[in-house]
Design goal:
The structure holds two protein chains of two kinds. Chain A has eleven helices and twelve strands. Chain A is an alpha/beta fold. In chain A, a hairpin with a 2-residue loop joins β1 and β2. In chain A, 44% of the residues are buried. Chain B has a domain of 188 residues: Orthogonal Bundle (MetI-like fold), CATH 1.10.3720. The chains are: A alpha/beta, B mainly alpha. Chains A and B meet through α2 and α3 of A and α9 and α10 of B.
């Protein structure tokens, strides 16, 4: 049994313009101590997938189907009260926006202490000592003094470290990091990713890392799930994914990296033609077909299932594999 | 923080000086001659001249102003032209009465308005929200004078539980004083609580959708604690509104004191204007301006306390 299992997850938002199928069918598993990256373009449903694990989506206008099991317990069946006891304790979240994710009116120390007192029942003195330890753990210098700082007195990178400190304060089993470095300067990104990787090594925290940046994936992830239009289209260990991507979409993403352009000896970045399909319908076809150079009649007549192509490597495509690429350039 | 306070106090002093000049000029720009008002339309020119000399009205304006400020700083606002009583003494009698009404009205406004706004926001779209918003709209739309008359008709004429008008000093008889305060305070407090209710509702609603509230939720904090996070940040808006409303409270007091025949600051103002009682008007307006300045200062200091980002200096960033 895996630590975290997401099975046939479907998330539908009710809007004035009709239902939005944000996540159409997602299944994946997270092992203890693993860093799993969820990758895809904006709007592919990766954040919604991640937020539906601790059920942090809005409480109204959302329908969640399928199962999310943590240590065998189905979280979708839990009442809000039980979820509250679990959030911050067993599953924590680091959000994309470090500038707005901390309360501007409270010191960072207080915001860390709050989660410790909620779940660990520490008295305020012990909680404060622990908060200082946590700030040191995420690499904030002069931690004791920083506890008295307000969020606006810290840089974006420092704030994100504070968010991570809050996230791991109660030693959770799973840390969900939703684009944790997207809002940060490139020079700061590496430091924050290192903190996340170190925490996995020292505390054994399993991480679901949501990102659209394959560079980030290559740096820290163990395994990758590539999402497209609310579904996973490819799932593989990170080395295998970069060495032998199977899905044409994954290949497109890798080719779009600046480093790939350098390898090809060109200054022009590859792009994937076309747009992500609108999340309003769920046709029985490969939804990438319209943008895919390999698309055949079969692709639009029935949706390909996620199948094992080689060891631990699964892909949902009728024409997988690097060798078939017939690039038109 | 200390430096911030000093800077704000200094700028308040500047506002006060400017305010006093405007007051001084404004009064003199009004049509009508105080000497005429005092001596009567058919007065002897010699009498008028004597009156002007006595009150310094024959001097050029800048001299009158300097004289006025010098006297005001010593607590001497001149002598009422109507009853020959020192203005400072009149103010000292009237201000506490209005301060009591205003203070109690603010208390009522806050105690009803803010909790109602919070409940309304937290239970958005539910029955409690509709009831609070509906009552808020009524409280906002009903004019003071009508509410006052309605109150007198119900509580004094029909139920005979409260006196219709009149005033008893707090020191003389505290119980009777409060009994007579009930209606004026409710009349003034209703409008204020309606405004505060609406503002705290919308401020809290907008704060509840902020990212940091989602963080609080992700930390496993119960709903009550999430609201507490948001409330702290919505109080800035509520403070602003309260500061602005206090101005309205002064004008509201004018009407309310007329209705309930309370010898307060508002009634004093109206009487003084009708009688062209320059020294009293100047005193009244100067006190009002000072009141505004002090309130604004308090509002700004409250901001800094509520919102650490405003403590521009003295931080360690």
């Amino acid at each position: 049994m895996s630590l975290l299992e997401v099975e046939d997850l479907r998330v539908t938002f009710t809007t004035e313009d009709g239902p939005v199928l944000a996540v159409k069918r997602m299944s994946f598993a997270l092992e203890s101590g693993e860093i799993l990256a969820l990758v895809g373009e904006s709007g592919c449903g990766k954040s919604v997938t991640a937020m539906s694990i601790p059920r942090l989506l809005p409480t109204s206008g959302v329908e969640i189907e399928g199962a999310v099991r943590l240590g065998g317990r189905d979280l979708t069946a839990l009442a809000e009260r039980d979820l509250e006891a679990l959030r911050g304790k067993e599953i924590s979240v680091v959000f994309q926006e470090p500038m707005t994710s901390l309360n501007p009116a409270y010191t960072v120390g207080r915001q860390i202490v709050e989660v410790l007192r909620r779940h660990e029942r520490l008295n305020s003195r012990k909680a404060l000592d622990r908060a200082v330890e946590l700030l040191e753990l995420v690499g904030i210098p002069d931690a004791r003094r920083r506890c008295d700082s307000y969020p606006h007195q810290l840089s974006g990178g420092m704030r994100q470290r504070v968010m991570i400190a809050i996230g791991v304060a109660c030693n959770p089993k799973v840390l969900i990091a939703d684009e944790p470095t997207t809002a940060l300067d490139v020079t700061i990104q590496a430091g924050v990713l290192e903190v996340i990787a170190n925490l996995r090594d020292t505390l054994g925290t399993a991480v679901v890392l949501i990102t659209h940046d394959l560079g980030v994936v290559a740096k820290v992830a163990d395994r990758v799930v590539v999402m497209y239009a609310g579904r996973s289209v490819e799932e593989a260990p990170v080395d295998s994914l970069f060495a032998a991507p199977q899905h044409p979409y994954t290949m497109g993403l890798i080719d779009a990296l600046p480093s790939s352009a350098l390898l090809r000896g060109t200054r022009r970045l590859e792009e994937i033609p076309g747009m992500v399909p609108p999340p309003t319908s769920d046709p029985d076809e490969c939804e990438f077909a319209a943008r895919c150079p390999r698309a055949s009649a079969r692709c639009t007549s029935a949706r390909p299932a996620l199948k094992v192509s080689e060891a631990e490597h699964r892909v949902a495509c009728y024409h997988p594999g690097r060798k078939e690429v017939g690039r038109v350039s | 923080m200390g430096q911030f306070v000093v800077r704000r106090v200094l700028s308040s002093v500047v506002v006060l000086v400017l305010g006093s000049i405007v007051v001084f000029l404004g009064i003199r720009a009004l049509p009508g001659d105080p000497a005429l008002a005092l001596a009567g339309e058919s007065a002897d020119p010699a009498v008028l001249a004597a009156i002007r000399r006595q009150y310094g009205l024959d001097q050029p304006w800048p001299i009158q102003y300097i004289h006025y400020v010098a006297q005001a700083l010593q607590g001497n606002f001149g002598i009422s032209t109507v009853d020959q009583i020192p203005v400072s003494q009149i103010l000292a009698e009237r201000i506490p009465v209005t301060l009591e009404i205003a203070f109690l009205a603010i208390l009522v406004g806050i105690l009803i308005g803010v909790p109602a706004g919070v409940i309304s926001a937290v239970r958005q779209g539910k029955l409690a929200d509709y009831v609070a918003t509906g009552l808020g709209l009524v409280g906002l739309s009903v004019p003071h004078f009508w509410l006052g008359l309605l109150g007198i008709w119900i509580f004094a004429v029909h139920l005979r539980v409260l006196p219709a008008s009149g005033f008893v000093g707090l020191a003389e008889d505290p119980v009777e004083n409060l009994r007579r305060m009930v209606m004026p305070v409710l009349v003034l407090g209703t409008g204020l609580s309606a405004v505060l209710m609406r503002q705290s509702r919308s401020a809290l609603l907008s704060q509840l959708s902020e990212d940091y509230v989602r963080t609080a939720r992700a930390k496993g904090l119960p709903h009550r604690a999430q609201v507490r996070h948001a409330l702290r940040n919505s109080l800035t808006t509520v403070t602003t509104v309260l500061g602005l409303q206090l101005g309205g409270l002064i004008s509201g007091a004018v009407v309310t004191e007329q209705i309930f025949v309370i010898p307060g600051f508002g009634k004093l103002t109206v009487d003084a204007v009708l009688q062209r009682n320059y020294p009293v008007i100047e005193g009244v307006v100067l006190v009002t301006v000072s009141g505004y300045v002090v309130i604004n200062l308090l509002v700004d200091l409250t901001y800094a306390w509520l919102n650490p980002r405003l403590r521009l200096t003295g931080g360690d960033s």
